[in-house]
Each structure stands twice: as C-alpha cells, then as structure tokens.
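To assess whether ligand presence alters the predicted conformation, the chain was also submitted together with adenosine monophosphate. Input:
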Amino acid sequence: MQVVRTRAELRGALGEAPRPIGLVPTMGWLHAGHRALMQRSRVDSSTSVASIFVNPRQFNEASDFEQYPRNEQSDIAICAEEGVDIVFAPPVEEVYVDGFDTKVMVGAVARPLEGAARPGHFEGVATVVAILFNLVGAERAYFGQKDAQQVMVIRRMALDLAIPTEVIACPTVRESDGLALSSRNVHLSPEERAAAPVLHRALVAARERWAAGERAAEALRREMRSVLADEPLADVEYVSVADGETLAELERVDRPALASLAARFGSTRLIDNEPLAG
Ligand code: AMP
C-alpha cells in the first residue's frame, strides 16, 4: 500500500495502476462503516484508492471542524487491513490550490434537510468530491447510505459535470443496538451514547407503520417524533418523510420515500435515515 500526499504523487501512483479503480472518500477516524465501503471497492476493483481528508469547506461550524476526531496512523493501518492500494492523505493546500476560488453548488436536492440545517455544507462536499473524482479518475466511488442526501447530491453533481465516475451507495453499518456508526459517536458521553439508539428506533417505528399500510406522511413523522420525545437527551432538529428522488416533503407516501432525522445529543449532532421502498 502506498500513502501519497500530493497531487503529483497521486498521479504517479495511479499511472501504472490496473483498472478498474475504486475510490472511497473519507474524513478519517475510520470505523466499520468505512471498512464496508473499502471491502466493496476491493471486490469490484483492481486498484482501490481511499482518501483521508477532513474537508474544512464542508463544516458550517468552526468548532465542529476543530473537534472532528483525527488519527491518521490508525486510519492508515485500517486501510492496509482492508486491502486499499493507495491512500491519498493530502494537506489542505494540495486539495485547494493557491488562489482556489471555485464552488460546486448543486440545486434542489441539496437544499432541504442537511442543506437547510447546515448552510454551505453540500457546497463543500460537492466541491471536494468533484476535485477527488477528477484527481483519481475512478470507474466507481463508494458512499454510505447513512448520508443518503449526500449520495443524491454527489450523483447529481457527477452527472451534471460529466464526471464518468459511477456513484455506488452502500448500506448503513450499525452497532448491535441500532446506532449508525459515525466518527462523531466518539464525542458522546456514556449517557448520550445510551440515548442515541432512539434515532434508529424512531425510524424503525415509522418503517413498521409504513409496512403495515400507513401512507399519511404526517402520521409517520408523528410516530418518529413520539418515539424521540421519550428520550430527553435527544434534541430533535428535524424529522422528514420525503420523496426518495427529490427529497421534497410528502403528504402521501405513494412512491419510494426516505424517512430521515437529525438530533443533537449534547453538542454532538447525529443523523440517520431509513428508506420506505421495496
Ligand atoms: P465520513 O468519513 O464520515 O465523511 O464518511 C465517509 C464515507 O463513509 C461516507 O460515504 C459515509 O456515508 C460513509 N459512512 C459513514 N458512516 C457509515 C456507516 N455507518 N455505514 C456505512 N457508511 C458510512
């Protein structure tokens, strides 16, 4: 496995790399969710590339960026374990070159939910992923369904900018109590950690109501709010039942939909979602 830091080193490493190439973009503090993406890339690809870059432009709160957990040594060891061939772990100035002054802004699908809650977040995501896609030139790139709106934003961006990398969404990896793995879980106090699985319980409750035939979106949102209300440590930001393609809020769930939510536990903001389809 090669660890490269600069655009030039990356180009060099990719020069002789057999195709197809799979890319797994990450912000590090790697866990089993990231491992699952790397495993999928390894199966699909002759060369697997993982990037580790805490992207300052996608944080709408400076303190969130500063406190984001980092441990490059352990991340590199995990990449090696998962059969990654090339780790791209650049400093900021190798991603955002001197005088950098471009933003990639995706439209409607980036506006609700996380886009509304975190102004500028998806501009930062779309911009850095466009750069990574262009630098790596992978046939495929792997993202987690945990960040469902992110997958939709990146798909739109790649299609619109004619970047030929195929965007593959992989299932959310969870703890045994249902909590979606997230690098941010490390910030939870023991009490907050014990409370956090309420997110998944709320989504499962909505999904069960939907599976039993409930089609009124507001009834499903109410179900989620009522489960969340039983957990005093959950400070709910939004609950949503939205069109699975556009993310517009639904009145009736008469097409594939996405139930999603965001809540803070203390200062730690967590998100999760569950598709209502199939
Ligand atoms: P991050 O390092 O948090 O930016 O995440 C990098 C990639 O891993 C993104 O595509 C995430 O959606 C994905 N990811 C994060 N957590 C999980 C999880 N629990 N299950 C599956 N994928 C995940």
